Amino acid sequence: MISRRILLAGGAALTGLSACGMTPTTSKLRTGQHPQVTSLVVQKSKRRLLLLDRGAEIASFGIALGRNPVGPKEREGDGRTPEGSYYITRLNPNSHYHLALGISYPSTLDVAHARARGVSPGGDIFIHGQPEGVTGAQRIQGDWTAGCIAVSNQEIERIYALVQPGTPILIQA
């Protein structure tokens, strides 16, 4: 049986969170708790990366995209970030950028579309931090990647700690 003291303490904690404008869901990353990230969503038009736990948003990050961000990736070197359903393939602690999570682009459908046009679909699409020399919360402004999704180094450290290989990622226009 739950004691009255525990119920009162829990109620006080929830009241304190709501008074700060934080809900228990959005506060998880700030309190050191480790929520389960069950999927990611990239909203290219809004320049946002969402971390979700069974559909509930637990974190949101501003992002930079490929230098030519409008439209889906069509071929290697087009500077576009792909659109579609993928998954996280690997965690790379030795990236040229500050940590990286591999994305399963190109899919078999992406390869087929590229072959039909006689071009290479490209590859090596990641969620990553900033290049060497950019630290902490600093970030390069604008869309600057070759097709990857970039966040600050502080943000990639949080994402890297929470996301596992096999996690689905939906990249939307």
Automatic annotation (TrEMBL):
One Pfam short name: YkuD
Regions crossing the membrane: none
Biochemical pathway: Cell wall biogenesis; peptidoglycan biosynthesis
Gene Ontology biological process: cell wall organization; peptidoglycan biosynthetic process; regulation of cell shape
Keywords linked to the UniProt accession: Cell shape, Cell wall biogenesis/degradation, Peptidoglycan synthesis, Transferase
Domain L,D-TPase catalytic: 38-172
Family annotation (InterPro entries): LD_TPept_cat_dom, Transpep_catalytic_dom
SUPFAM superfamilies: L,D-transpeptidase catalytic domain-like (SSF141523)
Active site: H128, C148
Keyword Isomerase in record: no
An MF annotation (GO) of this entry: carboxypeptidase activity
Family of this protein: Belongs to the YkuD family.
Protein name as annotated: ErfK/YbiS/YcfS/YnhG family protein
Lineage, broadest ranks: Bacteria, Pseudomonadati, Pseudomonadota, Alphaproteobacteria, Rhodobacterales
